[in-house]
Each structure stands twice: as C-alpha cells, then as structure tokens.
Amino acid sequence: MSEADVGTAEAVAKGNCDFDLIIVGAGFAGMYMLYRARGLGLSARVIEAGSDVGGTWYWNRYPGARCDVESMQYSYQFDDKLQQEWNWSERYAPQPEILSYAQHVAERFDLRRDIQFNTRVQAAVFDEQSSCWRIGTSDGGSHTARFCVMATGCLSSTNLPDFKGLDSFQGDTYHTGQWPHEDVDFNGKRVGVIGTGSSAIQSIPIIARQAEHLTVFQRTPNYTVPAHNGPIDQDYVARVKAEYPAMRARAKTMISGLDFEPNMASALDASAEEMQAQYEAKWAYGGIPFLGAYGDLLLSEKANDTAADFVRGKIREIVDDPEIAELLSPGNVIGCKRLCVDTDYWATYNRDNVSLVDVSGTPIERITPAGVQVDGREYAFDAIVFATGFDAMTGTLLKMDIRGLDGQSLREKWAEGPKTYLGLSIAGFPNLFTVTGPGSPSVLTNMLPSIEQHVDWISDCLAYMRSHGHDRISPSTEAEAEWVNHVSQTADLSLRSTCSSWYVGANIPGKPRVFMPYMGGFPAYVDKCDAVSANGYQGFALS
Ligand code: NAP
Fold first, then answer.
1. Is residue 79 part of a domain?
2. Which helix (H) or strand (E) is 161 found in, with range?
3. pTM of the predicted model, to two decimals?
4. Which of 127, 142, 261, 388 has the fewest CB atoms inside 10 Å of its own CB, making it the most exposed?
5. Tally of domains within the chain
6. Domain-embedded: residue 414
7. Which tens digits make up the pLDDT trace of 455-514?
8. Residue 107 included in any domain
9. How far is 300 from 380, CA to CA, in rounded Å?
10. Which residue's CA is the closest to the ligand 1 atom numbered 16?
11. CA-based torsion, 45, 51, 53, 56: positive or negative
C-alpha cells in the first residue's frame, strides 16, 4: 500500500468518517484541541509519536532544559481552577516540571483515553468523494476523519547536519531535541557539544560541571541574557493568582503575548547614562524582556547596536580570556535570531575544563571514530552532543505525505515556501487546520496563549459549521495569497528578517528562504482572526 493509498474502504464507501476529528500531536496544542473537541461533542482521536503527552517537553530532556517564558505565564488559561491550583517551583520552569504539568492536565481532564501513543502519522490524504481525511500511521493502521488538525509543534523535527563520517563515531551521540529518557552521566567523560543556540546555551553550563572536559564547537556566536532563575517568589505567585484573568488580558494586548512593561521610547533619544542605566536594569531583571528596553531595537540597526554593544561589554566583563570573549561576541543584530536566556553561560568559559573551537571559518570536516575533525585536527570524545536545532515550522508537516484536492501534495505546494491563510489553513486542503502554523505569530509569542487562541478559533469554526449545516471549509487561493503577501511585507519591517536564522529556514540546506512566522504581533493577528470569523469566515469557502 502506498503512503497516499491509506484509508478505511468501508468508511469511504459509506461517506462516513471514523471520527469527526483527528488531531496529530499530543503536546499542549493537541491536548487542548482534544479537550475542546470533546466539549463540542465531537468524536476525536489524537495520534502521538511519543509514549506520552508533552510534545516539546517530552522530547527536549537535555540537561538544563527549561522554558524561557516565566512559569506563571507559560501555562494554560482555559480553566481557572487549573491555573489557581497548579504550583510552579521556579521562576522559569525546568523541563521535568513542565512535563509533569502536561501529564497533570492529561490526567485531570482524562485525555489519554483518546490518545494513541507510539504512533507516527505518515500520510494524510483528503478523499473528495467521502470528504474524509484518511490518516495513515506508522503501525500500518489508518483512520478517517472529517477534520484533521495538525498540532505538530513548530520545533519538533530535529536537524542533524549531514556530517561526513557521522555513523563512524565509536562513542555515544545525543541530540538535544531527542534526548534519552534514562539519565545520561557525563562524569569523567570527554564531551563535545556542536552548536551554540538556546539548547546548547542551556546545557553547556551543566555538562561542563559533570564532564572531565567539554569542547564547544561554535559556528556563530549567540546573544544570551541571564535568566536569574530561582525559586518562585510566593508573594508574586499570590499576586498573580489574585488577578490571573487581568494579567492574561494584559498579555493579550502585547505583541509577544507576554505580560511585561516594554519601554516604547527610542534608544536613539536616550543619553549614554540613561541608556546604560536602562540596559543594566533590564539585564538585572533578566530574560527576553531585555529586548523591550527600547521600542526600536528590532526596527533600527543603530538602536539595535546600542543593545548589542551592551551585551558584548558584559561578555568582556564576565569572560576572563579576552580572546575567548572576542570569539564569543556576536557581531550581528541582537534578537534577530531568537534571544537566548541562560544560567552561567559566559562564565562557563572561565572553567579549566572547557574549551571553545571556532568553526566559523573552518567548518567541521568530519566526525571520526574517535571524535570531531576540524582543520585537520582531531578532537577525541567519549560523547558528542548535537545541539544543532530543528527543521522549524514546516519540517514536521512536510515529513508527512499530506495530499489535498486533486491529489496535490503539500510538499509540491510549499516547494517555494509555506503558503497558508492565517497560519491556520491551506488553500486546496479542505478541513485541514494547523495550530500555530507558518504565517501565524507562534514562535514570536508566548506559545501557550497562541495555541489556545488557535484552538479556540478552530473550535468556534467547527461549531459554526455544525450550526450552519456545513461540512467542508477551505480558504480561497486569493485570501491565502493576500495573507502570504502581508506576512512577507510585515517581516520586511523588522530587523528579524535580516539574518540567517531558522525563522527563515537558513539552517536547513535547500530550504526556501522565507520568513515563516507572522511579525505583525499577537493583538493584530487576533483582531484579523476575529474579523474573519465575525464576517462569516471571510476568505473561506464553506459548503
Ligand atoms: P538553533 O538555535 O537552531 O541552534 C543550532 C546551533 O547549531 C547553532 O549554533 C548552529 O550554528 C549550530 N549548527 C547547526 N549546524 C551546524 C554545523 N553543520 N556545524 C556547526 N554548527 C552547526 O537550535 P536550538 O538551540 O535547539 O534552538 C532552537 C529554538 O528552540 C530556539 O531558538 C528557541 O526558540 C527554542 N528553544 C527554546 C528554549 C527555551 O525555551 N529556553 C530552549 C531551547 C530551544 P549557526 O547559528 O551557525 O547556524
């Protein structure tokens, strides 16, 4: 049976589908979609590749993994009792605690009974005659459903570069995004870490404390600001819980979907003293709000330079060896790639057992049986950690063989970059929804409110269709083209689109260079989605 030739012949012949809804993925998006589908009285099945819920937080178990959004905001808000009763232990929750939270939600709402674990979706094919999606899975099974919701996450397909000799290495290899469930002990080991993105920046300080020697291979230095993580302040928790809905409402007015107070003034209008004080205050507060120091940091390169200079100064202050400090200092726009948030990252390079290898000019030549070879020199290791990121936003969707009307494949349709209407739906692929898909603000925002907004929108749409007697919805190619154009024009307004990041697919050889997330901000995006639904699903054909 070919990937495209899946389905339950009987159901197709009857014109009925096995389920109202198939949801792919049991991370925060898939779980909430299931909860809402049940609330609508719809039959739903979730298909999940992992052995449990949690998505990102199920797979990314590397040492030091934690969220860079503060715990009190990185949580569901759909159920007030849940947000009142759950207690976070740290300002930034560590991965095991976020995974426990996901597991708690699954238990609390009895979600697991509708989730099929350890099963990967390989194909999703729309059958025009029956109007069912036919979903083919890795266990050889198939199910049909009227609607299919891709809740597959934005950073869920790991990127392992095609290094020569990759399989020849005799030691242990790990990818941060596919970390084993068992404890990994680096004590007394020589460890190499490839990459200096968020995953590396979080894991390097911890691995350095365990390893006999740690060697970091850096291709591009990265900006990071301190998390100042610690036990969560209980007075703060009490204050937030006393006004949780108000805090959530404030967050929704913010471009990032995060409740914090940005300074909208221009960096270029500040005196040197004011600027220093402002950046020091933001540095002392810590985390992503550093980029809210001034309103034009992502709009003007001159303004951005002031923040970048400040961070480079901090690197020189913290790192003892001036040559290492220089190597660690990024030269590009701060915040262009996702800003990292760390605990003790720069200081780790002061340790005697840590060395840095710059591979910007002399790329890694090969992986050898003993280690990593750069510029003719072999570095020997017991273990190599690939912190080399993800085929972001489109990778997971395109791994599946998704086919819409006339057998058109999504791979063909997106050959020059993703095209969606609102990052929620795709012309030619009826009754298919993507949660936080390309073309939505997703990764530029706090993911949890963005997920909830999408799932709520999809749920409202399903309810509307039922009450109006519709069983098919598909965006028009015109509405989609207009949205794609708007996403691209909006991206051009910001410095974020100017560098080689995973936002533009630059980390994956051959991937089309398109700025994938929507830069217009959470409030503008929500207004657009709300206007579309208020106007009878403007831009969609319903039948
Ligand atoms: P990433 O940001 O894409 O970083 C990958 C690293 O691997 C980069 O330093 C990259 O260098 C390097 N690399 C890739 N291929 C290489 C090669 N052939 N040779 C040498 N180096 C190579 O991936 P990530 O660190 O996993 O983070 C991805 C995203 O996940 C983050 O931006 C963030 O949105 C999210 N994340 C969030 C958290 C959090 O919430 N705290 C934690 C981890 C991740 P180049 O820069 O030169 O390409």
1. yes
2. none
3. 0.96
4. 261
5. 1
6. yes
7. 999 999 999 999 999 999 999 999 999 999 999 999 999 999 999 999 999 999 999 999
8. yes
9. 44
10. 388
11. negative
